[in-house]
Q: What sequence folds into this?
């Protein structure tokens, strides 16, 4: 036994002396864009809630950017500050791109039939939004991601964590506020105190598997979020996914934005071709994704190319719908 342990120790010592790398860097993305950064306006100042009264105003006041995958075991993300107006403020973020669960019912209803084609899970990411008074934010903007949790010591000497974030996600499941999940917008209407500083944290939960760059669009607006939903429904019926469009951004070196307004992003040629058509179909209750996806596959076949879901796509092989071969069979476990 002594001999075996001695030999094991000798082997380990030899490995370390040889310079073997056990740092774990191979577990992290090799993407080079920043995983933590601060969002300001064009002049480098904190953002100001915008008055948005039209669909064109909605597009003009959307700010776009990208954030890289975290390079440590901690969170990554983007923060920005604003000053409270004394009234309601809407905060809205839409991460890349859109996600759905495939329906495999043998006789799907009209609603379920819309989702009978598999989604491409490789181009979706998730951002979780938290907002609170800046004085309670525990992170170091641009350096380290924090939260709005403070520690309170009760009368028994127990330390109790209390969240002072005051902008819960507007969506709910069975009456409980939830984070929307992969590819889905998050938003809330928050009453603000006049002249009080607020910090918004857009925390990276997951980045798209195809390129490890999480692109997103964000809006800071005066009034209720329901106003933005109404403006979006003028051009596309119904969906939250249509409030912000164009958030699927073509990766280009170390340039991750920000871009101020849809037109600025579009004129830079940074919106993935076809992504807006995909979003229109996704949020249109009269559009069947099965048909749209089949048309996409047929067009790809006619072009002489094939979809590539697993690696970083280019302009010739990007498909927004998934691989039909991944569809589970009915009744399978």
A:
């Amino acid at each position: 036994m002594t001999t075996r342990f001695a030999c094991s120790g000798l082997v380990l010592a030899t490995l370390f002396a040889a310079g073997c790398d056990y740092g774990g860097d191979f577990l992290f993305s090799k993407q080079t864009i920043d995983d933590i950064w601060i969002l300001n306006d064009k002049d480098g100042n904190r953002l100001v809630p915008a008055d948005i009264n039209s669909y064109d105003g909605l597009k003009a006041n959307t700010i776009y950017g990208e954030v890289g995958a975290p390079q440590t075991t901690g969170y990554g993300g983007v923060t920005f500050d604003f000053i409270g107006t004394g009234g309601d403020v809407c905060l809205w973020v839409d991460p890349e791109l859109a996600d759905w669960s495939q329906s495999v019912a043998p006789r799907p209803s009209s609603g379920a039939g819309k989702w009978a084609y598999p989604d491409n899970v490789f181009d979706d990411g998730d951002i979780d939004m938290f907002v609170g008074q800046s004085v309670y934010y525990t992170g170091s903007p641009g350096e380290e991601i924090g939260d709005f949790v403070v520690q309170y010591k009760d009368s028994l000497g127990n330390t109790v964590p209390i969240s002072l974030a005051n902008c819960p996600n507007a969506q709910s499941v069975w009456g409980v506020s939830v984070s929307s999940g992969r590819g889905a917008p998050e938003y809330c209407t928050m009453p603000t105190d006049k002249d009080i500083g607020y910090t918004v944290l857009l925390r990276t939960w997951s980045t798209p598997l195809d390129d490890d760059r999480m692109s997103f669009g964000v809006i800071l607006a005066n009034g209720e979020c329901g106003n933005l939903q109404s403006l979006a429904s003028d051009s596309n019926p119904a969906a939250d996914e249509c409030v912000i469009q164009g958030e699927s951004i073509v990766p280009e070196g170390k340039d991750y934005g920000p871009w101020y307004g849809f037109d600025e992003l579009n004129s830079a040629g940074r919106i993935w071709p076809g992504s807006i058509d995909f979003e229109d179909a996704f949020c249109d209750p009269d559009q069947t994704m099965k048909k749209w996806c089949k048309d996409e596959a047929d067009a790809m076949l006619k072009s002489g190319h094939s979809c590539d879901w697993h690696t970083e796509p280019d302009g010739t092989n990007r498909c927004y719908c998934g691989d039909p071969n991944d569809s589970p069979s009915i009744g399978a476990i």
Notes: The domain at 27-326 is CATH 2.60.120.380 (Jelly Rolls). Residues 1-8 have pLDDT under 50 and may be disordered.
